[in-house]
């Protein structure tokens, strides 16, 4: 039986993207394959679970009251072998939060994933090389399995025009809704209002299926 290290499990409200306000059970996996400059999430320490232990744990929650189980992190797809065992037994719709770089891992798990919330990682933040090629391969895999997919872009004043252009190209080619998310510093927005407005206009002028949605859970001071 496979195991995975999990930082925390908690019942809360989705605070990002088009599913804002839906109640979810969050499973935060440890580990990530990239190191984003703006990341403020603790995912390096946790408890090791077997598949049976995690199934038993989530069944202690009121699953009838939640919309879906959110796999978050870190990067959940690092644990794709564990997920292949766990997901068929989860008993709820699965919402994957991912950095959109692990297309082979998605290939192994896509059958049991319903919604994909994919980050478009900007070179100015992630600095891992060929990031848009990795994103494109990931999107192709998601489309192959006909998964619901949208993309979030965390941005600040460091965003560059070529990053905007590449993000729009991906969205146009694969008809993906884009969610612009200003970077946060704790519970405060770390981007000026003027720059937010300028950035939104740059995107929407060329790709109308773009929305500005902040991290609502931080404004409400909930997890």
Verbal overview:
- It contains 8 helices and 11 strands.
- 35% of the residues are buried.
- With 223 residues, it is an alpha/beta fold.
- The protein has a 9-stranded mixed sheet.
- Helix 3 (103-109) packs parallel to helix 5 (131-144) and helix 5 (131-144) packs parallel to helix 6 (161-174).
- The two termini are 31 Å apart.
- It has one domain (3-220): TIM Barrel (Alpha-Beta Barrel).
Show the helix and strand layout.
Elements: E1 3-13, E2 23-29, E3 47-50, H1 51-58, E4 68-72, H2 80-86, E5 94-98, H3 103-109, E6 115-119, H4 123-126, H5 131-144, E7 148-155, H6 161-174, E8 178-182, E9 184-185, E10 188-189, H7 193-206, E11 210-212, H8 216-220
Parallel strand pairs: 2-4, 4-5, 5-6, 6-7, 7-8, 8-11
Antiparallel strand pairs: 1-2, 1-3, 9-10
Which features would summarize this protein structure in a list?
nine-stranded mixed sheet, 223 residues, TIM Barrel, alpha/beta
Rg, Cα atoms, Å: 17 Å
In spatial order, strands of the major sheet run 3-1-2-4-5-6-7-8-11
Instruction: Give the DSSP E fraction (strand runs of 2 or more residues).
Output: 25-35%
> Percent helix among the residues?
25-40%
Level-1 CATH class name: Alpha Beta
Number of helices: 8
What is the CATH topology descriptor? TIM Barrel
**Sheet with most strands:** 9 strands, mixed
CATH architectural category = Alpha-Beta Barrel
Q: What is the average per-residue confidence, as pLDDT, rounded to a whole number? A: 93
Order of helices and strands: EEEHEHEHEHHEHEEEHEH
CATH superfamily: Aldolase class I
Distance between the termini: 31 Å
Query: What sort of overall outline do the alpha carbons produce when their principal axes are compared?
Result: globular
The figure for the number of domains is 1
The overall strand count is 11
Q: Which consecutive residue ranges, at least 5 long each, have pLDDT under 50? A: none
State the secondary-structure class: alpha/beta
């Amino acid at each position: 039986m496979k195991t995975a290290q999990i930082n925390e499990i908690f019942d809360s409200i989705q605070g990002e993207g088009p599913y804002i306000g839906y109640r979810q059970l969050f499973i935060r996996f440890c580990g990530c394959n990239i190191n984003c400059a703006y990341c403020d999430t603790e995912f390096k320490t946790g408890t090791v679970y077997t598949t049976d232990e995690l199934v038993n744990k989530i069944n202690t929650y009121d699953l009838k009251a939640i919309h879906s189980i959110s796999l978050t992190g870190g990067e959940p797809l690092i644990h794709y072998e564990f997920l292949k065992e766990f997901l068929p037994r989860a008993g709820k719709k699965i919402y994957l939060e991912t950095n959109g770089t692990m297309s082979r891992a998605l290939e192994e798990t896509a059958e049991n994933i319903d919604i994909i919330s994919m980050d478009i990682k900007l070179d100015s933040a992630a600095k891992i090389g060929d990031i848009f090629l990795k994103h494109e391969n990931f999107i192709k895999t998601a489309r192959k399995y006909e998964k619901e997919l949208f993309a979030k872009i965390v941005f600040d004043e460091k965003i560059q025009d070529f990053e905007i252009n590449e993000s729009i190209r991906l969205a146009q080619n694969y008809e993906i809704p884009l969610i612009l998310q200003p970077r946060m510093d704790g519970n405060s927005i770390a981007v000026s209002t003027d720059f937010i407005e300028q950035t939104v206009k740059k995107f929407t002028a060329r790709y109308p299926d773009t929305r500005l949605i902040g991290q609502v859970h931080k404004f409400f001071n909930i997890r």
